[in-house]
């Protein structure tokens, strides 16, 4: 059986190829600003604007409002979050029934978390059940949430993941994306997408050549190929 060895690209050759690719600093600055704005780092975005002269695509004041909504959800203050969203733009929830259901579902989860069983049942029946009748997906999510009430130890029950902090973060992320969309801004930052693309490209190259690759994206250091 004939085997073929991979072509080896040395560090010097690889770095020369990289240096031939010209990336404008202006484009890099826009990429950084896009990340700061989308993720809500308003103070860092303001400082970066002053230092680099890069203007954000949206008003930085709106970031503070958006982060207040996100923080409210992450803290379990869903009613406050809904009020803040409506203050920003009432059409966000009016035109996004799935988002509104998930916020109401999160309210139900918080009632159950706080041991307010009767209030939780009443809320589920009056606010969520009608929406479940209109949408089977909503009904399944509602049934799964109400199932929390059937267990004494909710933290170790089959649906206990709904009480994890990750559930709050998931809902907060959905709200954040909806607000960004309403502001005609991309809901996801470009930088993570580019890193995913870099990972994919490196995996494709691994099948054909040995080259200095980036294994740790936090340092972006090139590591010599194994020969």
From TrEMBL:
InterPro entries: CRA_dom, CTLH/CRA, CTLH_C, LisH, Ubq-SigPath_Reg. It comes from the Eukaryota. Residues 62-119 form the CTLH domain. Coiled coil: none annotated. This is Glucose-induced degradation protein 8. It comes from Dorcoceras hygrometricum.
